[in-house]
Amino acid sequence: MAARAPVPMAPAADLLVNRKEYDALVAVAKASEGEEVCHEEVAHRPPPLTVVRRVLAGGALLAAAVAFALLCAGVARSGTIARGEEGLRQGPLRVASSEVEVKAQVFTGGRCGKKDEDTDYVLWGPQWGKSLDHIPDPEMCCAMCQGVPQCQSWTWIKDAGLDGCPSQCWMKSRRPDKKVHGKSGYVSGLPPPRPPLRAAPPRSAGLAEASGGSYGKDNATNVGGLLRGGTRQAVQDETCSKIERDTDYQAGDNLNMVPNIMNAWKCCEECHAVARCRSWTWGKARAEDEHNSVCYLKSAIPKKSEKKSADGLVSGLPGKRHETEGPKFDMEAVTVVRPGSIYCFSLIMPKSYEQELMETQHSLNAGIFACDEAAVYSNMTLHLASGLQTGVVDSDLKCVLGGDAYTALNTWIFIAVWRKVVEDGRYLYHDWTVKVDADSVFFPDRLSVVLQDHKGGGFINNCKYGLHGPIEVLSRAAVATLAEDYAASFDGKSPKKCVEGLHFGTWGEDVFLDRCLHDVLKLPRGMDDRLMCEAHCDCPDWYWCKNGTSRVVFHPFKRPDLYRQCMANALDGQPLLVKK
Prior knowledge:
This protein is of the alpha+beta class. About 25% of the residues lie in helices and about 25% in strands. β22 (about 385) and β23 form a beta hairpin. The model is unreliable at about 1-110, about 205-210 and about 215-235 (pLDDT under 50).
């Protein structure tokens, strides 16, 4: 028996739902290089990572391709929007001079409306074009055309000679110069009108962006002066043991940088609420900085040489912590910003389509940035927008593909991510914590409505087949219970009971999280299919983003233009909403 080729490494945050999708992405990548791809060869000998990354990271390739777990037998039930091939074309698109015109059969159906069956649309002269492989039906081809602004007409070919699912979608930059009828297996049409996307109003003054990867509403009360006085001063000895003015503590690691902390007392409270915080410094990040005051939580008590003179800064040590302190104690010590508040975060790969999607969401004040507070994590510091940068996770964000469905085995990556969420401690200020994939079109205002039916719950399943990763919703108590399991491990880097009690070597992070929370930590699991619409959970016509007005997430949309059009379709002309 020949030795089996090693499984390639793949970026953890990329959605690689199964082996068929992986093969299709590789096929698109090789096609863009002019290489001939044998499906069977790919299936038995995985290509190097660089080929997959070339597709998933984007860059010069600006097309979309869909790979399906179920081949084109009947209605497609699964798919992943990735990237494909585009360019400037000369002359007609694959039209032979011997073709003759016959009367075309016209049929209607779906949201696309009128389609010309057995008809190819021909454009003459220079033109932009885009081909998408493995598109299972004309309706999806039409939806993809609607999502790409340059596309003004499309043609779907039932059998384009591709391996696996042989169908193909051609996007074209103008309405047809000529309709060629009698083309068996061809369906052509025009995209439906594109509803405008009405951006959310500018962020209120209460919203601020943090240099530590998080932004949200001001959790501090400005009572004037550096320290609170009056009745609260009596509590200072317990919460704050030492305070030094005009001093910067330069000891240990920065555990977190918390924005909008308007006085030193509040900064000390922030440190006291985080178990690993041993000292803190409060004040302007720089004398010329226009942002509000920042609280720096640090992992060590400073030596004398690590105390530096700094005008305007205040530093100190947290008070003595009770022996019973831990995440559950923190829950009692910290008050949520408002009932039902939501803390959202995403993990992104540097310099990838995920970074583009995050920047798009931020520019629209949409997605996770419409939550009460939000954070973006990566494995390096990325400046996403003015005043907004990523928090850093201790992981290279790489994993192998495997398991029965050949999925990304990314559990250890998200163990590191949830550790960072726990350490940052921002979940304590909100009733719910929500992890959202970057390619999930996400509506927090709809989530708020759904959560009203799950008060007092643990976490919420989003699919009849089990928890899926595009959106994961945990209550404050659930994250605190998970935090306790992290604290129980010898180094605090992983949830002790879950890691020791589960055999998760062939699981993705969503399966691990579900089993960890429910089977090991015994948290109640709710179920709400309003949370998500994606092909892998049998949500019909997911690509139109029109499956009711209560769907919280549509997934996946890996290009900014497709993402924006999905959001516009879902809103149907209504403006985006942000929390007040």
